[in-house]
């Protein structure tokens, strides 16, 4: 019984370390995606929209709206994956 318990504890520890690495990788991906979004917005979208006469506060509003749409998509996709995993069990 003790051996079984120790094996279970080791497996839990390994699982925890793997999840820690996955979290770090996901955080890096999210940071890169956000930085890329900001750079593209600042150097591609903003100059074009300013040339079209869009006001600064409208530019910020549009940026936030795009970010919110991306979040909604990501959360919705995560929920779909979660639901599909539940139905597979």
Features:
single chain, about 90 residues, mainly alpha, 2 helices, elongated
- Please report the total strand number as a whole number: 0
Helix/strand order: HH
- Alpha-carbon distance between the termini? 28 Å
Mean pLDDT: 90
Total DSSP helices: 2
CA-based shape: elongated
How many domains in all? Answer: 1
Classify the beta-strand content into a percent band: under 5%
Q: Uncertain runs with pLDDT below 50, 5 residues or more?
A: none
Helix content: over 70%
Task: Look at the helices and sheets and give the structural class.
Answer: mainly alpha
The value of Rg in angstroms is 21 Å
How would a textbook summarize the main sheet? none
Question: Can you give a write-up of this model?
Answer:
The structure is a single chain. By secondary structure, this protein is mainly alpha-helical. It has one domain (about 1-89). Helices cover about 95% and strands about 0% of the residues. It has 2 helices and no strands. It has helices at about 1-50, 55-89. The longest helix is centred in the N-terminal third of the chain and has 50 residues, at about 1-50. It starts with a helix and ends with a helix. The model has no long low-confidence stretch (mean pLDDT about 90).
